[in-house]
Write a structure and sequence with these properties.
This protein is mainly alpha-helical. It has one domain. It has helices spanning 2-18, 25-35, 40-63, 65-68, 78-91, 105-114, 119-141. Helix 1 (2-18) packs parallel to helix 3, helix 3 (40-63) packs across helix 6 (105-114) and helix 5 (78-91) crosses helix 6.
Length: 142
Amino acid sequence: MEELGVYGGLFLLSFLAATFLPAQSEFGLVGLILAQDYSLLLLVTVASVGNTLGSVVNWLLGRSVDRFSDRKWFPVSPAQMNRACGWYRKYGQWSLLLSWAPFIGDPLTLAAGVLREPFGRFLLLVAIAKTGRYIVVAALTV
């Protein structure tokens, strides 16, 4: 039962880290790897799935930007949105391979929704980027 809580906590941390809420899932993953009590493959998988699904929330917000962008809680300013959309227009779908990067990843996933990136392609590219990052973090930790 304790393991379920550990993996669930990592999932939640990774999910939140992919949204505009401040969270650092890499530190959680590294700590759990160093504890050597949990499956490395399962830790990387849980973090990757959680982080990818968090980016799906950004994509959905982007799809609904017209309804939400004027709300106080909306996490992106018009200037940030214009910058992210400009980057996305310039580099296209391949910019989603940078969705793992701090500061630019979250706005890119939001811009993908705004600019109507097809969900299947979005999900594939973001999953590759997010999983790749966690594999590198795990490899550097081990």
